Amino acid sequence: MRHNDRAASAPWIRTRLRTAPGAATALAVLVLVTAFLAAAFPRAVDAYETKGLRHDILTADAGRSTLEVARPQPGLELPQAQRDAEARSPELARIGSGLLKALPTPLRADTPSVAYGVRTSKPAVANEPWLPRPEAAPPQLSYVAQSGLKEHATLASGAWPTTPREVTSDSREVQGAVTEETAAELKVKVGATITLLTAAQEPITVTITGIVAPREPLGSYWSADPLLRTPSLIPDPTSPFPQHYWTGTVLLAEDAGPALLSTAAEPVLFWRIPSDPAGLTGPDSARLTSVIASLESGPGLLKVREIAGDTAVFATGLGHIVEANARMRDAISPVIAVAALGIGSVAAVVLLMTGALLAGRRRAELALMRSRGGSLRGIGGRLLAETAVTVLPASALGLVLAVLAVGEGRWWPGALAAAGVGLLVCVALPVRTTLQHIRPTLHGAREDMVSARPSRRRTVAELTLLVLAVGAVTALRRRGTSAEGGTDLLVSAAPVLVALIAALVLVRLYPLPLRLATRPVARLRGAIGFLSLARAGRSSAGGALPLLALLLALATAAFGGSVIAGIGDARDDAALASVGADARISGASERATLPDELVRTVRDLDGVRGAAPVRVEYSVNMPEAVAGDGGADGGGAGTGTRTGSGSGSGSADDAKAAALVGVDPASYAELARATGLPAFPAARLKATGSSAPLPDGAKADPDRVLPAIASPAVAARLGSEPRAIETLSGDFKVQVVGTVSRVASVSPTDFLVVNSAALEQKAPTTLLLTGAPDPGKLRAAVEGSGKEYAVQLRSEERARYVNTPMQAGAERIYLAAVAAGAGYALLAVLLSLLQTAPERKTLLARLRTMGLTTGQGRKLLAFEATPQALLAAGGGLFTGWATIALLSPGIDLVPLALAGVAGSDTSPVLLRTDLWSLALPAAGVVALAAAVAGVQAWWASRRGSITELRAGDSR
What we know:
Elements (H helix, E strand, L loop, with lengths): L4 H4 L3 H8 L1 H39 L2 H4 E7 L7 H7 L2 H14 L12 E6 L3 E2 L14 E7 L2 H4 E6 L14 E7 H7 L6 E5 L5 E12 L5 H4 L8 E4 L8 E9 L4 H4 L6 E8 L9 H14 L1 H10 L4 E3 L2 H44 L1 H9 L4 H30 L5 H26 L19 H24 L9 H4 L1 H16 L1 H12 L5 H11 L5 H36 L3 E5 L8 H8 L4 E14 L35 E7 L1 H11 L29 E6 L1 H7 L4 E5 L2 E10 L11 E5 L10 E6 L3 H9 L5 E5 H6 L5 H31 L1 H13 L4 H34 L6 H4 L17 H28 L2 H4 L7
Parallel strand pairs: 4-10, 6-8, 15-19, 16-18
Antiparallel strand pairs: 1-11, 1-12, 2-4, 2-11, 3-4, 5-8, 6-10, 7-8, 9-10, 13-20, 13-21, 14-15, 14-20, 16-19, 17-18
C-alpha cells in the first residue's frame, strides 16, 4: 500500500503562519504603516504642488491669467461689406470656436466666460459738459462691443443696448450701457448721449440705454480689463504739471462692432479665453510653460494665425504665473527632500532590524534544517514565499489607503514606493538568513557577546561614508539645497550621512566607557551593578542597526521640528516688522495725526497692556556724510545688525533719507521689551537742557541739540557731532547717542529716533499697542472717533503667511516627518530590546535559581537597558544639534515661510535648534526603554525557572 506523502504533509506557509501568528501580524502592520507613508509622500507632494498651481492661477489678476488673441481691424483695401462681416458676432464666434478647439493640452478654457468682440485700443476724448472734470481735463473713454453681456450682468435700470438696424461702418447711431460704478463716478444716466468721432471727424452718437450690474465683478469677464467694470482717475502723462482725468469703458451692443471700424481709436478684434486650472496638476507646469511659449512666439502662434488671421497676436501673463510657481516649487523641493530621505532611511533601517529580529528568533530552526541537508536555495525560497504572503498584501493595502487618504496625485510614484517597501522586506529576511547559514553549525556561540572586531573592509567603508558626509555638508553650506539640475540627492542626504557617521563612531566607542565603569562598580557590594554594566558593555542590542535607526530618527525629528519652529519664528518676525506691535493704529495718510481722546479711549480697552504713541515722518533728508564715515559708538545701546534686507546695516552713503520717529522713551522702551525687539536705551533720550520739552505752540531754536538713537547707517552718516536737519516737526540739530538695529514703528532700514516731547509738532501719527485687545471693540473705538484710521493687527498679518497651499502642504509633510521620526525611534528601541528578550529571560531564570529576588531582577534589566538608552538619547541629541548647526547656513526657509506674500521681508530665514524637537523624542526613547525592561522583568517573574531552563539548552 502506497502512502500519499504529498497529501499527508502540511503546507509550509500555512504551518508557519499558524505557528507564529503574532509575529506575522506585527510584520504586516509595520509594512502596512511604512508602505502607507511611502506611498502617501509622493502623492502629498503632487497634491500640494497641484493645489499651489491652481491657487496661483485662480488668485492672480484675471488680466494676467487670461489668454487673449487680438488682431487689428480688417484692412482698408477689403470691401466694406467684408470688413463689416468680420466684425460681427457670427464670424467672431466662428473664430473663437476654432481657437478653443486648437488650445493645446494642458491648457483648458473656462468656456462660459469666453468673450469676443471689437474694442478701441486708444481712448477717445469725451467733451460732453455734464461729464466730470476733476482737474479741468475731460474724460477719455474706451468703447467695446463684447459678447455675453446679458449672461454676465443684470440690468439695474433702463434697457439692454440693442441694434434695431444692422450696424455698418457708416452707422452714426449706436446704443450702449455702463456699469453702476462707471455711472456713479462719471455721472452717467439712462438716456444720456456721448459723441464718438470718426476718422473723418463725423460724430457717432452713443445713447446710454441702460445701467448694468456685473454678476461676478471679480470674474474674468469683468476683470480681464478692469475698466469694463470700474473707471479710474489717472494722471495725464502729456501734461507738464500734475493733472488727472477719468477713464472708463462704454459697453456697446454685441453687433455694434462695425461702427467702431470708422473711428480713429484704433479698433481691434479680440478673443479673451479665461484659463480653467481645475484640470491642471503640479507636473503639468513644465509642459504648460512650453505650450505658452509656443503660442506666444512659436509653432502654436502659426496655428493661431491660421484660424484668426495672419496679423493675430497672442498675449497672456499665465506663463509668468507658472514660472513663479515653479520657482517656489524648486525652492521648496530640496528642503522637502531632506525630510523624505531622512524618514525613508529610518524606515529602511527599522525594516532591516525587523528582518534581523525574525532571523535571530529562527536561527536554531534554520540551522537544524541546514544541518539535515536543506539547501540555501530551498530555505531562502521558503522564507521568501512565507514573507511574501504577509508582506505583499500589506503593501498593497498601504497603497490603497494612501490613495484614499491623499486624493490628488499621480498613482505610479506611490505604487513604486509601496512596492519598494514590500520588496525590501521580502528580500531582507531570506538574504540575511541565507548569509548566516552558508556553513552548517552544530551549535551557536554565545548571544550576549559582540564577537567580531571591525574588519579592514568595514573601516574603509566607514571612511568612505565619512568623506561623503563631509562633502555633502560642505556643499550644502556653500550653495544651499538648490541645484541647477533639480534636487541634489547627495546634498539632501547630508543629515542622513551625519547621523550615519555618528552611529558608526558611537558603536565603536560605546563599550569602552562601560567596561571602564565596571572596575569601580565591581568593588561595591552586590552584583546587580556589575552584572548590568558588564552585560550592557558586551550586548549585541547596541549594534550598528539599532543605534543607526535611533540616531537617524532623532536627527530627522529634530531637523523637522527645527524647520517648523523656524517657519513660525520667521512669520512672527515678519508680522512684527510689518505691524510694529500687537496692534497698530495710524492715519489714512502719513501726515494724519491721532487725537488725544482716541489715544485715551484705546488705552483703556480690555486686553491692552501697553500703548506707545509715536510720531513718524518719512523721507527726512539727512546731511552729507561726515569725513571718515565715523559714527557714534553706541556704547551699549545695541549695535548688532541683522542679515539681509531690512537690517539697517547699510553704508553711510546709502542713508540719504531716513524716517524721523518721535517717541515717549519710557512707553517705547516698554513696548520694545514686550515685543522682543532689541533693548531700547530710553535714558539716553531724556529731555533736559537744550532738549527740554517745548510748550504747545512754542517755536524751537534751530540750534538746539536733541539726542537721537539712530540706525547704524544713519549713525555712520551723521557722525558723533551735532548735525542740523529740517523736518515737518521742526528744525533742530541731532546728536547720535546710540544705535539700534531695528525699531517697531517703521519698516525702512534707516531711521532716527528722538524724544517727541522736544518737537514743535508732538501729535502722534501712530499708536502701537501690546496685549490682546478684542479686534471688534478696537475697530469700533477707532471708528467712533469720526475719522478714518487704519487698524492693523499682528495676528491678522501673521495669518497672511499660511494661506498658500504649497507652503501649507510642505509644512504638513514636515509635521508628519517629525511624528514619523519619533515613532520609528520608539519602534527601534522596542525592536532592539525584543531582539535580546529571550536571553534576558534565561538570564533571570538562572539567577533566580541562585537566589536573585524579583526586585533585583527588575533592577538588573533596568540598569542594563539604561546605558544603551542614554547612549541613543545623548547621541540623538548631539546628532540633531550638530546636523542643524552644520546645515543651517545652507538652508533658507523663506520659500516655506514667506514666499508669495506681498510686502514680506525676504531676508534669509535660517534654521535654529528647537529644544522640544530635540528633547521630547530623546526622553521618549529613555522612558520606553525603561518601561520595556520593567515589563520584561515582570513577565519573567511570573514564569517559573523550569519553563525557561531546559536540559541541554545552549542559552
